[in-house]
Amino acid sequence: xxxxxxxxxxxxxxxxxxxxxxxxxxxxxxxxxxxxxxxxxxxxxxxxxxxxxxxxxxxxxxxxxxxxxxxxxxxxxxxxxxxxxxxxxxxxxxxxxxxxxxxxxxxxxxxxxxxxxxxxxxxxxxxxxxxxxxxxxxxxxxxxxxxxxxxxxxxxxxxxxxxxxxxxxxxxxxxxxxxxxxxxxxxxxxxxxxxxxxxxxxxxxxxxxxxxxxxxxxxxxxxxxxxxxxxxxxxxxxxxxxxxxxxxxxxxxxxxxxxxxxxxxxxxxxxxxxxxxxxxxxxxxxxxxxxxxxxxxxxxxxxxxxxxxxxxxxxxxxxxxxxxxxxxxx
Amino acid sequence: xxxxxxxxxxxxxxxxxxxxxxxxxxxxxxxxxxxxxxxxxxxxxxxxxxxxxxxxxxxxxxxxxxxxxxxxxxxxxxxxxxxxxxxxxxxxxxxxxxxxxxxxxxxxxxxxxxxxxxxxxxxxxxxxxxxxxxxxxxxxxxxxxxxxxxxxxxxxxxxxxxxxxxxxxxxxxxxxxxxxxxxxxxxxxxxxxxxxxxxxxxxxxxxxxxxxxxxxxxxxxxxxxxxxxxxxxxxxxxxxxxxxxxxxxxxxxxxxxxxxxxxxxxxxxxxxxxxxxxxxxxxxxxxxxxxxxxxxxxxxxxxxxxxxxxxxxxxxxxxxxxxxxxxxxx
Amino acid sequence: xxxxxxxxxxxxxxxxxxxxxxxxxxxxxxxxxxxxxxxxxxxxxxxxxxxxxxxxxxxxxxxxxxxxxxxxxxxxxxxxxxxxxxxxxxxxxxxxxxxxxxxxxxxxxxxxxxxxxxxxxxxxxxxxxxxxxxxxxxxxxxxxxxxxxxxxxxxxxxxxxxxxxxxxxxxxxxxxxxxxxxxxxxxxxxxxxxxxxxxxxxxxxxxxxxxxxxxxxxxxxxxxxxxxxxxxxxxxxxxxxxxxxxxxxxxxxxxxxxxxxxxxxxxxxxxxxxxxxxxxxxxxxxxxxxxxxxxxxxxxxxxxxxxxxxxxxxxxxxxxxxxxxxxxxx
Amino acid sequence: xxxxxxxxxxxxxxxxxxxxxxxxxxxxxxxxxxxxxxxxxxxxxxxxxxxxxxxxxxxxxxxxxxxxxxxxxxxxxxxxxxxxxxxxxxxxxxxxxxxxxxxxxxxxxxxxxxxxxxxxxxxxxxxxxxxxxxxxxxxxxxxxxxxxxxxxxxxxxxxxxxxxxxxxxxxxxxxxxxxxxxxxxxxxxxxxxxxxxxxxxxxxxxxxxxxxxxxxxxxxxxxxxxxxxxxxxxxxxxxxxxxxxxxxxxxxxxxxxxxxxxxxxxxxxxxxxxxxxxxxxxxxxxxxxxxxxxxxxxxxxxxxxxxxxxxxxxxxxxxxxxxxxxxxxx
Lengths: 330, 330, 330, 330
What we know:
Four copies of one chain form a homotetramer. By secondary structure, chain A is of the alpha+beta class. Chain A is built from eight helices and 17 strands. Chain A has helices spanning 38-48, 93-96, 108-115, 131-146, 167-179, 207-216, 237-240, 303-323; strands at 5-6, 11-15, 22-28, 66-69, 71-72, 75-76, 81-86, 101-102, 151-159, 162-163, 186-193, 221-226, 249-250, 253-254, 259-265, 275-279, 286-289. In chain A, the strands form five sheets. Chain A has a five-stranded antiparallel beta sheet with strand order 1-2-3-7-4, covered by helices on one side. A five-stranded antiparallel beta sheet of chain A has the order 10-9-11-15-12. The model of chain A has no long low-confidence stretch (mean pLDDT 91).
């Protein structure tokens, strides 16, 4: 496996499996002397944590983080800032009985063919747990952006096609299907304000191309659209040229409008109903099995800070490309 | 401007403006000793060329290419293979009257703010003409993939929301709006078959993330979705886990199913109706102007080989990451 | 600070300061299913450890390592293999009295100007302690190379200009100067055998260019020469073309001869004699001070595994570029 | 072949063979709105040109350049600035008789093994002609550096071990050996002044590591040393810490002293005396042959602008990493 690093000037490298000793993220390229509010990192991690709301899995993951480098006397030093998460509460035996079978909708089969080997305990690198690293790194990027008045927010547009329900109604919907061993997907909106005009690079690293790369690298995401997106074909050129349709990006550069994009989140593949698993020792053979353990019936809530974080990392990287990374004052 | 290079192991670098001396693409990382069918390159370029069908602009662009390096006695040498396109038939004076005004829906404003300078003749690097480079490079990648049985195809799903019309009916639709000085968008499907299981990298360079980056870096594209995409929220987890919904990618790796994604193409912003342009010397001031010259009323046909090419470049890059680049036999 | 990652396909990212919680290295791009001999990693680390021989500092660094990801049932999984070193035995107060002064021959002044901030406890990232990460990663690369019969070795050519002394005589020489609070430099030779012909990339990433980058990135190294090197000007072209002068690299590619290069190691700048320090609050002002604490009088012995490791990482990266990274068999 | 791109933020990509249609360089990442003095580019190219002084080959290479993109109204636009060199005066038949034999001291053998194919006309990518691209790009970087008072210079220290001869005496020396069909090497010094303190990145991309990579990627260079270099072992630590020994780099960052390094240039391998060539169809068989055509007896003069250029490209890249790339004013 390669390419566990993301970014051009501000780079994050993540490592670790859900059932190994620790996961972590190395953030390389941060400006020095920036004061970090560690409570905000924890706050974003708490939004991502399973068990935080009734909508999520009842696992109790240890999402307390430790900054082990690049941070001294409350500020970034400019050296690689590394955050680690020590694992515990690992129910490896939940995975033992299915270790020779590929779960439908998962990467199990592809991993086995590609690597001829996998850490079957919880998905290894394809586990959603990897996103703790992204959220912690993103929480730092969000603080630096915020010091320049750039803010990022996200919200749920729909779950299982139902729009504009209250949080309570969404919870009820999720609980109903959870009871049936099923999972639900939805649609999420991300917005960012006060982005200076001209961020992004005009050809291959257009701002929308970079954000798409970042967002589509999150496991459950199956689509992304900017501004009027797929609906733009319902407009004529002169209509689509008007304010509000670009999603804040024209010709690949931020254009001064609010950044706006929407994301398709699929129903999580870990469902407890019985399904056909592929026998990894004989790829043509199937077996009827079910996934046990605690899993998310709907990750639409938990994914919000992950989406915000990946957006923040792209925006800060693009800012650095234009402005460099002058140290903060002492 | 930076980052005019795309790819990890197989890298393409494009250069040139629509109204400069030439455009070109340097393809770095190709295996040596692969025989190239230059007629196929021209065939793909002809599909992209304006004026090829009545649906496109009536400009006569010179899309004859010259391979100037990396190619000897009909085969790749393994050195950077460079293809150039000499420009001619440039109607620079079409642009003279609007050089101090930013066209709506274009990158003009963002370029001016970012670079304080732009080649106003035809959009510079943000011109669609840059895609000749991608198509030529992609045509080579498609030949190498084809030698391993991997095929890529694309087709129009809808234009202005109308699905499944015949080519003749689409042409009529486009001509009608062209007469009004307007442009149309649409939806396109791309598919690839016989991709080996396990391509892509599991975390940041998931196959769908790489393809999204590549496809969203094409000017007119505003959205992308894989498999059941945005519609996946209408399915339960167990339903979405079934064959046909993944789009051929699970957990970021190719999973043995057919690769399938769909793309939103916006109506081209170059329309001839009068619009409000931003005065580049006073960003708060507007002026009523119209874009003259020959422009595409709908690029859905022309964009097909560009989409296929960017897909091919990603797939070949991922193949090289696994298999290396052994030279062909003499 | 940026660019804490080295390599094209096989990449290592190091993090951590000498006086923080931990240092570590993320090795991204390893082939899967390769069995690792962890004892060999420790053996190489022991060669690098201060206090191992009387030639080195008497500090007792904890060089026990922990593999925290990418390793399962004794084999690489193909995911990022991460090795961490927990710090202890940190004498931070040795540094307290000189925290406002830049040590001569160190990066202190440049760090302060660049970052306006530094972790003054022991040099931060510029500490030689960072090389534990390189040695651990290199020990894995050496095992993979060794499985393909490629071996790497290094030896001391001279210390303080004295060639071919016995180990005992070198130790005496070092002890003498250590007693005076001084340090010594030397010259080291690195060789590698059985490298397949054709490794390296012919233009910017010539094998000698990559090795020079890798080796010169080690703090104490001030020069490198391949084959007949600086002495080649004493030969005529036809003489220099003969076997034995190329150092194993012709035109940037391995040419089938033994890889041979030599390295200049400067006397370590941490000496305990009094010197003129620069006042970091007034760069034109000097103060007479001395560095206390335990420091290496000569790092020529300790640097050997670091040189071997960086060489191994370059060679394996180049091998992967040609051959890809097929998983080992189960 | 891969990795024909050099640089982190300012990247150059070169392409083209000595006997193809053209060579070129794409310079990606330049700041916009910088006025270029094209006469200075030609001046640097003329210093590199064979036939310029009697010391060089009598070939008449066409070193007139054409800027084909990224340049408008005398200034950089911020888009990729591309410079091409059209080839002519190609004596391909000089190479015909040796096309099945590997010249000693050249990359011919390694190319054939690696790529199973090579453009035998003049060395292909390993030809020294590729350096026209580096000189043109470097001439632009030197102008931008110069606008910030940073100057770069180089001079010959010795040829064939003879130091401090006059230019006339060096010419005589070279002519003597040229008459015998031989070639000579030498030692060159490069210096740069007014570099701001703190350039470079402290770990893998130390300023000396980047410069070594850049300089060792030039074909004829076999060694590099900074400051007191290999001679530093003759000094004690406290002596070597004094001003003048660091070469302007401490801990990998520029330290405010003058940048100083020296380079070993080997005698060019193209000599006309008879030598043993390797039969490419039977690698164990040798044949006595000689290289005909016009070749350089000593490239020490011609390599000066190449060394300056690679140094300039590294320094500007490092400057951009700290300061970003703000556009020039209109």
